[in-house]
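Lab notebook: predicted structure, single chain.

Context: the supervisor wants predicted structures on file for every construct in the current expression panel, including those that have not yet been purified. This is the next one on the list. No modifications to the sequence; it matches the entry in the shared construct table.
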Amino acid sequence: MSYAADVAALARKDLKVELRTRDTLPAMLLFVLATLVVFHFALPTNAADDAAYGLLWVAIVFTALVGLTRAWVPEHEHGVLDGLVLAPCDRSAIWLGKTLATLAFLAAAQVVALPAFALFFAPLGAPAIAGVLLADVGICAVGSLLAAMAAATRSREVLLPLLLLPLAIPLVVGGVGSAVSSEPSRYLLFLGLYDAVFAVLSWASFEYVVTE
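Prediction complete. Output recorded below exactly as produced.
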């Protein structure tokens, strides 16, 4: 099989498992909606839109954490990862397949979350939506690598946020900037550069993570 076929098969495996178990996506949907509802009632009615965009990114990052925390757990609990590592495919394909599946879950949650945000707070322009999509790639690329590392430990629910949140700060800055800045192209370019650099680093280092 080709590299692309291996990646597609691995991503399809995760999507099929989720369709059967409905373990991750419903939790992400409920979390992001509940978070936005709480923010809606907690935020003063005269608060600036800029503050609301910041709250959107808090909801997005922590919703991604919900999905990433569960991403590698089945593989470790049932010994599937050992079989995947021994399979005749490039190990980086395992990371890329998991990243694409997680990205699909996060995008599905945002199909509901972004209209809810527009209803509760402020409309989202094209630059803001582009910023969300670019940041999603970075969150899932880095998060899939870190989640694979954290899943092998007993304290994965604590370790993963400690590892991911500092690396997600530039994505939050870029995402909020794309929504509120008069020159959103600078922030979108920054997000694209972040995605490219960290995706390559995660892709190249995943083999060493699963080997250890």
